[in-house]
Amino acid sequence: MKIQEVLSYIEKLAPRYYAEDFDNTGLLTGDASDEIKGVLVTLDCLENVVDEAIEKNCNLIVAFHPIIFSGLKNLRPDDYVKKAVVKAIKNNIAIYATHTALDNAKYGVSYRMAQELNLENISTLIPQKGIIRKLQTYVPKDAFEAVREALFQVGAGHLGNYSECSFTIDGLGTFKGNENSNPVIGNSGVRSTVDEKLLSMTFLPHLENQVLKTLLKSHPYEEVAYELTTLNNNYEHIGMGAIGDLKKPMNINDFLKLTKSTFKTGVVRHSQPDIKEIKTVALLGGSGAFGIKNALQSGADAYLTADLKYHDFFQGENILLCDVGHYESEQFTKNLLHEYLSKKFSNFAILCADAQTNPVNYY
């Protein structure tokens, strides 16, 4: 089996299309056409993780954070980034990073945080907006089912928890080909009138090339008329953060104890809001100060994230802001990826890295 098969499966969970523009996701080192020996899953790919991959005969490291984030001007092993990269290249180890693609995935980083707290009614805190595409095309009745089925097979008509969604209207189409045309129906130079169906389907933008390729291949006409539009809807299945409810409301002290225990953090930095209990909890793994306003607007009683600055806590008058630490907020990502890959692949080792990569210590 090739490394690419594993990467393609990861991108079903977290398509790279939805990674943030500033990010550097995907295959950072190695050749996706290599045969896979084993997979080591980690939060960060440091030199000690590469050493572990070598020891355990894993030639693919699946990391959350990209070890190469900005441009490298040389490959001298003189800092922690280049030491890891050079060692991986020397030992023919591929490194793949998911980062904000997994942050934006429905069942990604923040969703897993919510699961660890045993929250109920979990949904996306900051859904992406304006990403749903709509395809409309016009198909002769005799070919309609074949075209629609072909589009279903490549993911068109899939929206959230529903698939094979479409809308049709019966109508009449007209066309007249010139002397260079080769019409499937009718003759060149003569206007034809054909019973057609308008087919309307939605799809997600990372599928656009495949959807259009399939449309043109399956449609009988020499020239296929179609239109694409972008809908302005929020799409709850892609976006940052998560929000859910505790099974029972808790007072602030008990909730802070639960948070500290769940995230195994040395300290929880928090605001002191003027509220009595916590019921609805918003979460965002990693640096999540930008999501405070969304947590407030959503009616959350608490917001768990990391890397909050001094002045961020002034926004915590009516919400319990909790900074649990960057590593701590994302630590379960390793388990998430390991479990996801293990369900699919059983003919080679898929391991969680034992190497410690958290650079922050508590005294």
- Number of E strands: 15
Determine the fraction of residues in helical runs and give it as a percent range. Answer: 25-40%
Indicate the structural class. alpha/beta
CATH homologous superfamily name of the largest domain?
NIF3 (NGG1p interacting factor 3)-like
Rough shape?
globular
Q: Averaged pLDDT, please?
A: 96
CATH topology of the largest domain: Udp-n-acetylmuramoylalanyl-d-glutamate--2,6- Diaminopimelate Ligase, Chain: A, domain 1
- Low-pLDDT sequence parts: none
- The fraction of residues assigned to DSSP E strands is 25-35%
Give Rg in angstroms. 25 Å
- Give a quick account of the main beta sheet: strands, pairing sense, barrel closure: 6 strands, mixed
- Give the termini distance in whole angstroms: 46 Å
How would you explain this protein's 3D organization?
With 363 residues, this protein is an alpha/beta fold. The protein has three domains: 3-102 and 332-352, NIF3 (NGG1p interacting factor 3)-like (Udp-n-acetylmuramoylalanyl-d-glutamate--2,6- Diaminopimelate Ligase, Chain: A, domain 1), CATH 3.40.1390.30; 109-127 and 239-324, 3-Layer(aba) Sandwich (Udp-n-acetylmuramoylalanyl-d-glutamate--2,6- Diaminopimelate Ligase, Chain: A, domain 1); 131-231, Alpha-Beta Plaits. Helices cover 28% and strands 29% of the residues. It has eleven helices and 15 strands. It has helices spanning 3-13, 47-55, 80-90, 100-103, 109-116, 141-153, 208-218, 252-263, 292-297, 326-330, 333-344, and strands at 26-29, 38-42, 60-63, 94-97, 120-129, 133-140, 167-175, 192-203, 226-230, 234-251, 269-270, 277-287, 302-306, 320-323, 349-352. β2, α2 and β3 (60-63) form a beta-alpha-beta unit. α2 packs parallel to α3 (80-90) and α6 packs antiparallel against α7.
